């Protein structure tokens, strides 16, 4: 460790011609948003008074909240936008107060919404969920323009009606 002082040179930013504050140079160099054309900020839609339409396909999925959306067979449905016009992010509000946010700068798809929900419920067992199946989404502009209400149901298959009829028949006998 015997270096001679003559070999060492002091480097000073003022000597080498660099400005002392690099933030001045970077001001105009901010990256443009990577969102796609035609994708809106939900707050802008509220200001303009544009109505949201929710994809009807979400009601037919019969998807369990604690299973990965990748397990769904209908891959084309997952690629569709959740709302028309498409938005960058939207809050999904559960009746019990839980709220999750689905985000996608190119427009929130049904898969983005399901992924956000799944992230909250993936550690829950089937018997922990009172209503484990997604029934669909509802947009109530009177309550909140920027969020969708998540509806859930007990069973995926609409076979519940048949069982009830059978019980009534047994009581009649």
Shape: extended
Give me the strand/helix succession.
HHEHEEEHEEH
| Class derived from helix and strand content | alpha+beta
Mean pLDDT: 80
Helix percent band: 10-25%
Neighbour order of strands in the largest sheet: 4-3-6-5
Main sheet properties: 4 strands, mixed
Descriptive notes:
With about 170 residues, this protein is of the alpha+beta class. The protein is built from five helices and six strands, in the order ααβαβββαββα. A four-stranded mixed β-sheet has the order 4-3-6-5, covered by helices on one side. Strands 1-2 form a two-stranded antiparallel ribbon. A hairpin with a 7-residue loop joins β5 (about 135-140) and β6 (about 145-155). The termini are far apart. The model is unreliable at about 160-173 (pLDDT under 50).
Q: Summary?
A:
This protein has helices spanning 23-26, 42-48, 75-79, 110-121, 160-172; strands spanning 53-54, 83-84, 89-93, 99-103, 133-139, 147-153. By secondary structure, it is α+β, with helices and mostly antiparallel strands.
Compile the SSE list and pairings.
Elements lengths: L22 H4 L15 H7 L4 E2 L20 H5 L3 E2 L4 E5 L5 E5 L6 H12 L11 E7 L7 E7 L6 H13 L1
Supply database-style keywords.
alpha+beta, four-stranded mixed β-sheet, two-stranded antiparallel ribbon, 5 helices, extended, disordered C terminus
């Amino acid at each position: 460790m015997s270096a001679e002082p003559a070999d060492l040179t002091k480097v000073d930013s003022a000597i080498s011609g660099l400005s002392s504050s690099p933030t001045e140079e970077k001001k105009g160099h901010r990256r443009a948003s990577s969102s796609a054309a035609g994708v809106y900020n939900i707050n802008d839609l509220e200001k303009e008074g544009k109505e949201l339409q929710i994809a009807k396909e979400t009601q037919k999925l019969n998807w369990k909240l604690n299973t990965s959306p990748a397990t769904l067979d209908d891959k084309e449905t997952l690629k569709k936008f959740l709302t028309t016009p498409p938005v960058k992010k939207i809050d999904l509000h559960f009746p019990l107060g839980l709220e999750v946010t689905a985000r996608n700068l190119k427009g929130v798809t049904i898969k983005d919404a399901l992924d956000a929900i799944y992230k909250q419920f993936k550690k829950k067992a089937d018997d922990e969920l009172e209503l484990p199946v997604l029934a669909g989404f509802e947009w109530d502009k009177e309550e909140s323009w920027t969020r969708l209400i998540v509806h859930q149901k007990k069973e995926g298959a609409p076979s519940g009606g048949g069982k009830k009829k059978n019980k009534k028949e047994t009581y009649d006998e």
